């Protein structure tokens, strides 16, 4: 069931909810793209009332700023208030994992469980990115030259979609299925908000350099589940310091999966999340 959420500054956010039970709010990655977590909602709708939303300026939400981590934390709180109630579990993927973590740090009394899927950690030097670039180029293989050629010029919407599909294909461990999975992520194609992407990425880098987020994680008194795919082209060692900082954390690595572990190992993903959600808050 779709719904519109209005933030206190008047921005309209697209949202959807399905299933029954305690609420679980999903935060998609990007930044600058739309919610692609429908398959996660379908996996978990027997365990929770799953709420998805498009972040401000992205997908089906209103195309307006400002684009900042603090603003997105406030938007997530608006989704929680309108659709989830006083307290909810929160699951974030990739950039959305950082958003979910920041939300839990800012509003721990409003979060029952935090699920951190395929995030990139809290290390201030962001040392994962060179490894990501090398692994991306290696996994693109025969598609590398086309991906590079598209990146060297101004793109039509069709070309932008093509380049995104090529890049997203590297996020899957199985090369035979990777393009099919990436095409699924890009359908329907709702466009990339590059202004949002640049602003949020720059702020996250600055935030990790200038704030002691590890200390705030050490004070976070709620259960956290970290889920990784060992074949993710972003080095999973980047999350080690986050795992060590969290006082109530478990970590699950789902064999045979990359950046989107629910796609390539759905049964174990559902089992891990369901068991965690039924644990005592």
From TrEMBL:
Highest taxon of source: Bacteria
A single GO BP: proteolysis
InterPro entries membership: AB_hydrolase_1, AB_hydrolase_fold, AB_hydrolase_sf, Peptidase_S33
Record Gene3D superfamilies: alpha/beta hydrolase
GO molecular function: aminopeptidase activity
Protein name per UniProt: Alpha/beta hydrolase
Family: Belongs to the peptidase S33 family.
CC annotations in GO: membrane
